[in-house]
Amino acid sequence: MKFSYKSPFICVSIIFILMSCKEDIIGPMDPTDEFETLDEELISYLKEKAPNGSVDYFSLPQSTDLQNIPADPKNNLTSAKINLGKMLFHETGIGIIPKNQNSAGTYSCASCHHSKAGFQAGIKQGIGEGGIGFGNNGEARVVDEAYGFDFLDIQPIRSPSILNTAYQTVMLWNGQFGATDVNIGTEDQWALRSPKEINYLGFEGLESQAIAALKIHRLKVTEWIVEELGYKEHFDTAFPDIPAEERYNDTIAGLAIAAYERIVLADEAPFQLWLDGDADAMTEQEKKGAILFFGKANCVQCHTGPSLSTTEFYALGMKDFSGEHISPTIAQDFFTSAQGRGGFTGDDNDLYKFKVPQLYNLTDSPFYGHGGSFTSIEDVINYKNEAIAENPAVPSEKLYSGFVPKNLTDEEVDQITAFVENALYDPNLERYVPESLPSGLCFPNNDEQSRMDLDCN
What we know:
By secondary structure, the protein is mainly α. The chain folds into two domains: 32-61 and 269-423, Orthogonal Bundle (Cytochrome Bc1 Complex, Chain D, domain 2); 66-265 and 428-453, Orthogonal Bundle (Cytochrome Bc1 Complex, Chain D, domain 2). The protein has helices at residues 8-26, 34-49, 79-90, 205-216, 223-229, 232-238, 250-262, 270-275, 284-294, 331-338, 341-345, 377-386, 410-423, 448-453, and strands at 131-132, 142-143, 313-314, 354-355. Strands 1-2 form a two-stranded antiparallel sheet. Helix 12 (377-386) crosses helix 13 (410-423). The chain is globular, with a radius of gyration of 23 Å. It starts with 7 loop residues before the first helix and ends with a helix.
């Protein structure tokens, strides 16, 4: 069934026609039919929670609708730029500055953010250089035992998804990348000779992070690499206005990667289809969960807008990385990561606060929270329902004032879980993955074990 929220007259007319048709087939339809009542109730909540009073506030644009996808004013979206970024994001051939040359050309941005894991890592702790293997959805990637600690590029915090990040103006759990919005006034923390100095270029979060990440994760783009891997024509087409002598480098490559990341949207998820007028896209259980999400549970207070996220930071007392399967990184990385927003701003009021994540395709990788301490969506919902902090390192006075029991029943928790797990799941993220790369190399990883796992030779 299709319906529209934009014209009450049309909506009523369509419902009347559908009721008439259905009556001819199965007899008079109960005007209090629960399924349609759920739609009406959900629409009411969405309008109430939307600042503009319209359900469209929660709609994602189509990934091809470049005019309506949020873009950095300094990095306009074009098809050529996006196509280049898509390839570079997955390109293992730019992994040319590893600390251990045995790993050269074996990793990419997608090693920790690939489609099969909802553009997160398929493991709890993402591994770039120093990882081997892939498995089916990245779950089998492990540390190469031949690597020393100092050589590993292993993350001190859960790798966030790039899905729907067009709606984030700053990036990472602590929001340290990005020169605009909430980072205006944090200039004293953009330390020179550190990754954060990239903010001085003046870009938003996605662009800043993409440029910085190439260096951080030991990836490199040079004119020689562009020529050798077969990318020169793609760079020339994507950036015709950039002088040739300034065109083939990490900054320009980062702008292309960020442009690609902006169009990676979960616009085929059932909730998005429902918003587009398909009343049957969600089940009754999912609709009840959505009503609770936007109503009684008030999850929308933090998870709002098209991506169901915000650029806000909250302390919810979740655990940091811990356990026997966690590999150590530089001690300072673990320390500042555990401090959350405060580790970046230096403001005591920001300690232990982490950015609100987007909620689409969470089931692709079963680790939740900045420390991956939860292994199911239901566990996270129960945690927020009970509101008992699990991390003893977080003082109670630092916890978010809204972190209080929600008094949801087990049935209501199940319904919200169904909404998040199923209605917010886009089943076709592979459309954002290139069929092949100009280099001809395997991706997202190119080590021997990964090539075997991916059946790529």
